[in-house]
Design a protein that fits this description.
Elements lengths: L5 H22 L3 H30 L8 H43 L6 E3 L2 E4 L10
Antiparallel strand pairs: 1-2
Helix pairs in contact: 1-2, 1-3
Length: 136
């Protein structure tokens, strides 16, 4: 008996591998490697969809053998592994976006002109804007 889920498990493994490759490329700041891995992920997702449709058509035939419990469990395990890899990638991407926003904010603060200070006969009073200082 052949495993009706084997093609889908292969596609799920390809998705997991591509997600791991994206995380690796992200950690090394390799744009080219990240883009290549992202393209592989998209291809693997398309392949998974195609293979799932083929399996549905195959199993709809009356002479198609039924899948065993172990085959279903293996498919569920592959799907869980792919989901975990994608969730880890999602977390890494969210962290990278947050880090990027923080860096842009820091850069803007560094490149902004210094706040003006009001000077009196007694010395610097501070910023005239938003500090609630009293001018003497």
């Amino acid at each position: 008996m052949t495993d009706p889920f084997a093609p889908e498990r292969e596609a799920l493994a390809a998705i997991a591998a591509a997600a791991h490759a994206q995380r690796e490329a992200l950690s090394h700041a390799s744009v080219e490697a990240f883009e290549a891995a992202a393209a592989r992920t998209l291809d693997a997702v398309s392949e998974l969809d195609r293979r799932r449709r083929e399996r549905v058509l195959r199993t709809a035939r009356t002479d198609a053998p039924a899948a065993t419990a172990s085959q279903r469990t293996a498919l569920e395990t592959a799907a869980r592994d792919a989901r975990n890899a994608c969730d880890a990638l999602e977390g890494a991407l969210e962290h990278a976006v947050t880090l990027g926003r923080d860096l842009v904010g820091a850069w803007r603060r560094l490149s902004a002109p210094q706040t003006a200070h009001v000077y009196t006969a007694r010395g610097a009073v501070g910023s005239p804007i938003g500090r609630g200082t009293v001018l003497a």
